[in-house]
Amino acid sequence: MKEATNSNIKSESVFHFPVTTLSPLKRLRILVTGGAGFVGSNLVDRLMEQGHEVTVLDNMFTGSKSNIQHWISHPNFNLINHDVTDPIHLEVDRIFHLACPASPPHYMYNPIKTIKTSVMGTINMLGLAKRVRARILFTSTSEVYGDPTEHPQKETYWGHVNPIGPRACYDEGKRVGETMMYAYRDQAGVDVRVARIFNTFGPRMNPSDGRVVSNFIVQALQGRDLTVYGDGKATRSFQYVDDLVAGLMALMEGSYDRPVNIGNPDEYTIRQFAELIQKLTKTNSSIVHKPSTQDDPQQRRPDITVASRELAWRPKTSVKEGLRRTIHYFSHELEKSGEIKTVGPGEYAAVTKKRHEDRRVV
Ligand SMILES: O=C(O)[C@H]1O[C@H](OP(=O)(O)OP(=O)(O)OC[C@H]2O[C@@H](n3ccc(=O)[nH]c3=O)[C@H](O)[C@@H]2O)[C@H](O)[C@@H](O)[C@@H]1O
């Protein structure tokens, strides 16, 4: 079939980015759950730029309307304020199912809600995919490997998760999410994709979401101490959000339907990472050590052989370059708001303790 002549026209508009005009045959109806969040909104930008019809479903618990503000009222864009734990009927071709709080302090804040989001939310999205024969991509996580005893982590590793620890609501929720994806594939023929996402950073991270990248940058830019939990020897491997988005899109449009690690194998101890942020922000801030958090994974690095073989995908942005862009973003956020307070596990531990005390009184 000959492509429509206007298929590559970029139309400059009142919107933030130019949008390709796709022929109706190539234009997909794409649902992005959690599309107002950090990763979701960056994905939405790319899908919109490609000319697809994009519907964002978000309950705004950790997402923010400001992340997708620039698309509101675009004819290809639709925002639905909805919680994935409630069923919804829509006609779509693709579902990127991202909805779930991902920062440890956020997901630990309301563990029951986190479990419901992963379990009921994923069942609802799988039910929708089954009904309308849409392909569905589930964003799983490196957390399915728990505190790993194998390093680096391959997709074949089954993991080492404490099922009743403080991280379990997220880790086990994502693990059962994967289980459901393959049950629906095998029993009902749903076309599934599963991404295991490793630590990701970049513009639109919530500056108060308590993750290490946002905490260290925001602390450094304000001349405050960088808070390292524990001895700083735990490791993480950080990828820039644009690389993750490219990986998710390649996975969705490829034919490989087993889980795929999407991450940058560039690994740092948290102490080294704090020193890198000190250097890049040219701050006078010091590094201080705080108590370690329970069940914190001690080492994490993706083996990305499958992604490079099956998707021809590799991260392209170096950690330093990604950090420069992210520092620039947070500097602007700070200019706008004047001050940003970072959160640590302490704040949420206090909420949980108060809940226990309240229960005793009742
Ligand atoms: O950022 C992500 O993409 C990942 O974040 C979390 O996993 P985690 O690796 O624990 O993320 P952080 O909270 O950023 O912590 C990373 C390390 O830094 C440490 N940390 C964190 C914050 C801080 O202020 N100081 C500090 O030393 C933590 O204890 C941990 O060792 C989520 O659970 C993952 O699902 C998610 O993919």
From TrEMBL:
Span of domain NAD(P)-binding: 31-326
Key word Cell membrane present: no
Family: Belongs to the NAD(P)-dependent epimerase/dehydratase family. UDP-glucuronic acid decarboxylase subfamily.
EC number: 4.1.1.35
Pathway annotation: Nucleotide-sugar biosynthesis; UDP-alpha-D-xylose biosynthesis; UDP-alpha-D-xylose from UDP-alpha-D-glucuronate: step 1/1
Major location category of this protein: cytoplasm
Alphabetized GO MF terms: NAD+ binding; UDP-glucuronate decarboxylase activity
Reactions that this protein is recorded to catalyse: UDP-alpha-D-glucuronate + H(+) = UDP-alpha-D-xylose + CO2
Localization terms from the record: Cytoplasm; Golgi apparatus, Golgi stack membrane
UniProt key word Transferase: no
Source species of the chain: Guillardia theta (strain CCMP2712) (Cryptophyte)
Keywords from the UniProt entry: Cytoplasm, Decarboxylase, Golgi apparatus, Lyase, Membrane, NAD, Signal-anchor, Transmembrane, Transmembrane helix
Cofactor: NAD(+)
Protein name: UDP-glucuronate decarboxylase
UniProt-listed CDD domains: UGD_SDR_e
A Pfam family assignment: GDP_Man_Dehyd
GO biological process: D-xylose metabolic process; UDP-D-xylose biosynthetic process
Topological type in the membrane: Single-pass type II membrane protein
